[in-house]
Amino acid sequence: MTSSDTPRTAFVDRHLGHVPDVDAFAAGTGFDDLEALVDATVPAGIRQDEPLDLPPALDEEDALAELRGLAARNRVVQPMIGLGYHGTVTPPVVRRNVLQDPAWYTAYTPYQPEISQGRLEALLTFQTVVTDLTGLDVANASLLDEPTAAAEAMTLLRRATRAGDDAVFLVDTDVLPQTRAVLQTRAEPLGIGLVDLDLGADEDPDGDAVAAALDGRPVFGALLQYPGASGQVRDLRAVVAAVDAAGGKVAVAADPLALTLLTPPGEWGADVAVGSMQRFGVPMGYGGPHAGYMAVRDGLQRLLPGRLVGVSKDSAGNPALRLALQTREQHIRREKATSNICTAQVLLAVIAGMYAVWHGPEGLRRIAQHAHRQVSRVAAAARAAGHDVVTTRHFDTVTITVPDADAVLARALEGGVNLRRVDDTRVAVTADETTRDAHVDAVARALGAEAPAGDDLPAAGGPLARTSGYLGNEVFHRYRSETGLLRYLRRLADMDFALDRGMIPLGSCTMKLNATTEMESITWSEFADLHPFAPADQAAGTRQVVADLERWLAEVTGYDAVSVQPNSGAQGELAGLLAIRGYHRSRGDEQRDVCLIPASAHGTNAASAVMAGLRVVVVACDEAGNVDVDDLRTKIEQHGDRLGALMITYPSTHGVFEEAVREICAAVHDAGGQVYLDGANLNALVGLARPGRFGADVSHLNLHKTFCIPHGGGGPGVGPIGVRQHLAEFLPGHPLEPSLAGNVVGPVSGAPYGSAGILTIPWTYVRTMGPDGLRRATVRAIAAANYVARRLQGSWDVLYTGRNGTVAHECILDVRPLAKAAGITVDDVAKRLVDHGFHAPTMSWPVTGTLMVEPTESEDLAELDRFCDAMIEIRAEVDRVVAGEWIVAESPLRRAPHTAEDLVGEWDRPYDRRLGVYPAGTTRGKYWPPVGRVDGAFGDRNLVCACPPVSAFGEPEAAPDEVSVVEVAGEEPALVR
């Protein structure tokens, strides 16, 4: 059955918020119809009239059937390739109740802690897993992947040692090859010299290799792999001591599962540990998304990139969690930022943390011992066949010398197993929790031997065997029954506010519908269980998804080429700027290192520019929120042939379509620069205008915004870049993907196609919307923002509008006059909105003391009106403060949000209890925040970054007398059921 003869409603009508009377909706924006609104809002000079050249829309069933056909073109082969990617089993209770649950995957970054306690607790659990396994003091709440985490560690160590420009960074030659490549990409623009550190085949190398590699040069740090890519497990204490004696610090890329059996880096002198938590229940997904991790020694926590969950208290003195320290540093520090926080994988970190909760220390140890046993059987078979096993001390990987590597790989594939080709005469074999005896037997046959039973094989680690305990907190011991973990996950989800509860009107972040149909395919084995370095012919379906999406995104944006490799918006920004930098350098214009950035820009822009080795120069904005063209021209003239690029967000971060965008682009081009257009607001352009056609040279696109990949509580994201033809050769390459190996610019992510495992989400979105549906979504998004702005006139001032008094897809509400008149802050309005059942808009950005509202196309008219009613009601409460009826400190605004405890506790406030806890328009099914207003300053002064007892946050599953102390082999006593 085709889409033209189905009785089903078109998907686009379900994606768009239901508006019974479109004409009345248009009238609410001040126009006769929506097309008239678009004509008045989008400048004629950038409009496109021709329809998008995209496939016509399919209904949901037909789109999924087509996607099933692509999935069938993939061949899932048992992965024994290694290189940081492993087969794993997502516990079904976690898969269904986290990965497939909109309460988790539609949540936003937990900047509003009062309504994020569930995911904050889950992230604190993740951090505790990391610190316990690594033996270090503080961990962040995830990074993108292992290679980018290693790159962040490199720059962290450079800052920590305050080394001179001539200090080098040592890189273990046994590091993962994709990590080495990403390090090179990140190091070169910053002027960091990478020096190979060859530790040879010794199990216990001394420090002489460090001195030989340095050859008298100063050093600020080193990256060691533990175990190495070859599988070798080394005692690295002497190497760490040698680096320390030379004035450097050490980062270790460590396999977290190996750390259940091996002495952790924190116990032998490492300063930083990084790695991937993929094998903790997160599917490979042909490369991602996965949760990277970073842990540091005490004293380095203020240099940690990304997000950090800490413990504070709420207004009643109860324990409460929040994001701590430098969580939003790139918005505050801008061009002085040292990292970019849009580098988290929250949903995947939650899965990894819950995998540890489910298995506990004893379960993780069993899984690790299984992997070690299985690869040990392979090693024994190889020796029996007369092959040299190069890896002398191993955890889950061995490298074997064979006469013909290709022949061994072919025979193994006949047995249903993928091995890794190291070179012509070496293969590597990696085992994991999914490796069965039949797989080991197939590898043994490929090597010309039989696999031994494995009963007498040596234990992992030898002299490096772990003796310290880990995961002793009770959360890792209470939930052994599925009932228990199911209820625990439900309790955490109930503490949070996500799109499944109500509107999240965040400006710039586009929290719109992530349709169930779009999400279904991410757990299909054909997509989820592909190793990113499997032979290309085994991934034909996924590669077709990539090719389709790159082609469709190029059509939507007007660019000539697209790369989906960047696995976040931040990585997309970096990749786009590196493309511009590569282009200038190819023309001999190495001096073009100035990046002009408007004052209104995303803070991430400045941080990314610094990471790309560019010097940031800020361009002023005028009173209407537009780029000040006169100041732009002054800055262009001032910097002359040093001008490299302009970064501009369009529509602007102020929520307007700037009329002078073509003039701005032309001025930059005339001066020899390139235009980077931040695609964060592309959902106001799709089907109406194309950046590549009105002057931009490169854009990153936030697929987790415009193209429906959900935010997942702060990750995953995908940030592909589109470029015009002259920049195509500077798209990111990858050493392990032949089609990308020759690219001028190196990789920005660990996998060739980034987070390929979730690209089926935007694929399905485009396939079900079609060209007309995508345009309708854009028009409806613009209309919704203008509807809200117009309804709130008279109660709230809209800070910026375009030439016809309209806004783009978002509007900025000015709270600053109320701060002067009554002491009311954006925090007060934001927290009071929680009582009405809403997540707050974006606070104090891009203008301090304002709220930026983006209603999206997916909210229906009733929800828009409910939000407007709440904002009008809150303004009425402000007026009562202004009139002197309440003092601000005792008003419902300052005492918000109100908890269920406030409902039943003593009431000594000057306003009615019902008004406080059930403001006008609130329904019986209202959301109750689990904590009152969180004290952020207290949290920063009293940073705690490890799991408190579960009892601190809710009722335990077991009474204290049901808990006993048992001993897990090789560990300290721990609490278990």
UniProtKB/TrEMBL annotation:
The Glycine dehydrogenase C-terminal domain, residue ranges: 777-898
Q: Which cofactor does it need?
A: pyridoxal 5'-phosphate
Entry keywords, A to Z:
Oxidoreductase, Pyridoxal phosphate
**What is the top EC class of this enzyme, as a single word?**
oxidoreductase
Q: Which residues carry this modification: N6-(pyridoxal phosphate)lysine?
A: 705
Q: What is its EC number?
A: 1.4.4.2
Keyword Oxidoreductase, does the record have it?
yes
| Record flagged with keyword Transferase | no
> Which SUPFAM superfamilies does the entry link to?
PLP-dependent transferases (SSF53383)
What are the recorded GO MF terms, alphabetically? glycine dehydrogenase (decarboxylating) activity
Reaction(s) catalysed by this chain, per the record, are: N(6)-[(R)-lipoyl]-L-lysyl-[glycine-cleavage complex H protein] + glycine + H(+) = N(6)-[(R)-S(8)-aminomethyldihydrolipoyl]-L-lysyl-[glycine-cleavage complex H protein] + CO2
Among InterPro entries, the record links this protein to: GcvP, GDC-P_C, GDC-P_N, GDC_P, PyrdxlP-dep_Trfase, PyrdxlP-dep_Trfase_major, PyrdxlP-dep_Trfase_small
Q: Which domain of life is it from?
A: Bacteria
| Residues annotated as domain Glycine cleavage system P-protein N-terminal | 14-445, 480-733
A Pfam family cross-referenced in the UniProt record is GDC-P
CDD domains in the record: GDC-P (cd00613)
Assembly and binders: The glycine cleavage system is composed of four proteins: P, T, L and H.
- What is this protein's function per UniProt? The glycine cleavage system catalyzes the degradation of glycine. The P protein binds the alpha-amino group of glycine through its pyridoxal phosphate cofactor; CO(2) is released and the remaining methylamine moiety is then transferred to the lipoamide cofactor of the H protein.
Family the entry assigns: Belongs to the GcvP family.
Spell out the protein name for this chain: Glycine dehydrogenase (decarboxylating)
Q: What is the scientific name of the source organism?
A: Aquipuribacter nitratireducens
